[in-house]
Design a protein that fits this description.
seven-stranded mixed β-sheet; 285 residues; alpha+beta; 9 helices; 25% strand; single chain; Dipeptide-binding Protein, domain 1; four-stranded antiparallel β-sheet
Amino acid sequence: MRLKAYSITVIFLIFITGNLQLAEASTLVYCSEGSPETFNPQLSASGTTFDASSRQIYNRLVEFKLGTTEIVPGLALRWDISEDGLEYTFYLRQKVSFHSTKYFTPSRDFNADDVLYSFNRQRKTSDPWYKVSGGVYKYFNDMGFNKLIRDVIKLDDYRIKIVLNKPDSPFLSNMAMDFASILSKEYADSLMKAGTPEQLDIKPVGTGPFMFVKYEKDAFIRYQAHPGYWRGREALDNLVFAITVDPSVRYARLRTGECQVMAYPLPTDIKSMKKNPAIKVAEQP
């Protein structure tokens, strides 16, 4: 599970240790704090949405090493940067499979077409996907990518070049952000042909560790482990987000074993949590 929060200074993840055995458990239930706005992280700037979408369902060309700001390879195995700092050439990982779901069966693996599609949707107003689901790419624009990127060029199936208008030292780190998640162009094309493009943002398909199964607003999200995940299949078979807005109710559900992990406790509860030997409190500044 890869949960990341953006809206608070300190993150608290609370584990009920008596029920949490990741190596053996088939299902993990996480008491989340709210419903996602969408399942496409390109369209949101919400940490709640990112927790439910980008970190479970998708990957990026580069990633942050867990718990750090160190950049490590993701869907790109390696990259070259031109001497003038304007051109980034990414060498893409091969044999990376997209999710096969009840609503989509991919016929090919991840390639440069998916990268091209994922960035052009956000940056090119002429792209047929630009206005789908409202066409607001706040995170992409707030990071300045709409003005920074001059072009995205497919060199071949497993090489992509991104050309900048000016050198930008944080560019590579920003490529690990949630808005830079890579979506399936093949899935997008099939939905556009069917006249239902907005389904891409509701019924997601990615390359990440978990596949989307079902969502009921303000109730739950269900995922299954991606059996062909390129980093290796997750130890969990199933991941459930039990959407629980009230932090006191989240804590109660944790204590009764209805969920094994929760976030965002009430500050007044943290002291008692730390005194409970069955509960582990993980803090990150």
